[in-house]
Specification:
The protein is 65% helix and 4% strand. It has 176 residues and is mostly helical. The chain has a domain of 116 residues.
Length: 176
C-alpha cells in the first residue's frame, strides 16, 4: 500500500516492522506534513493535556491504594507490587482492545491510548515507588528480600501484560 502523500513510499503505519526513522507514536505519521509541522502543534498540546489528566487520575488511584492498604514499616511492599502487576495486566487488556478496534471493528478514538495507556495506567503504575521500596529494603539490610522484590515485580508485571493481553484476545476472538 502506498503512502497517501508519497505514491512510491510504502505506508508502514500498520506494519509490525517499522524502520527506525518511523514515528514512535502510531497516531502520527511524520511523512504527512500537517502531522510533522506546526499544524500538529494544537494536537500535540491536546495529547499532552489528555496524558496529564490521565496521569493525575492514575496517580491518585495509586495513592489511594497505598492509603487503603499501607505497608507496615519494615514489611514487604505488597501494595506497590500489586499496583504494578494489576496496572500491567490492564495495559495488556487495553492494548488488545485498542488494536482490535472498538465496537464493530472501528478504531478507538486517537486520544484513548494516550489518556488511558500513557496517562491513567502510566500514572497508576510506578517505577519510582518500586525503586524507593527496593532502596529501603537494602537500607534495612534485607538484600534477599530486596532482590526478590525487584525480580518478582519484573516477572509479575511482564507476566501480567502477557496474561491480560492473552485473556483479552481469547475473549474478543470468542465473541467474533
Amino acid at each position: 500500500m502506498s503512502h497517501p502523500d508519497h505514491p512510491h513510499r510504502p505506508d508502514h503505519r500498520h506494519h509490525p516492522h517499522r524502520s527506525s526513522s518511523e514515528a514512535v507514536d502510531p497516531d502520527v505519521d511524520l511523512h504527512v506534513p500537517a502531522q510533522r509541522d506546526g499544524a500538529a502543534g494544537r494536537r500535540t498540546w491536546l495529547v499532552l493535556a489528555v496524558i496529564s489528566a490521565g496521569g493525575v487520575a492514575g496517580s491518585l488511584a495509586r495513592y489511594g491504594a497505598t492509603l487503603l492498604w499501607p505497608a507496615a514499616p519494615g514489611a514487604f511492599p505488597w501494595t506497590v507490587f500489586w499496583v504494578n502487576v494489576v496496572g500491567c495486566a490492564l495495559i495488556g487488556v487495553l492494548m488488545v482492545l485498542i488494536g482490535r478496534g472498538g465496537r464493530g471493528g472501528r478504531p478507538a478514538h486517537p486520544l484513548v491510548r494516550p489518556f488511558l495507556g500513557v496517562g491513567v495506567l502510566g500514572g497508576f503504575t510506578t517505577f519510582s515507588a518500586y525503586a524507593l521500596d527496593f532502596y529501603k529494603l537494602l537500607e534495612r539490610e534485607e538484600a534477599g528480600t530486596a532482590f526478590a522484590y525487584a525480580a518478582g515485580t519484573v516477572v509479575g508485571a511482564l507476566g501480567a501484560v502477557w496474561l491480560g493481553a492473552s485473556a483479552t484476545r481469547a475473549v474478543v476472538t470468542r465473541r467474533s
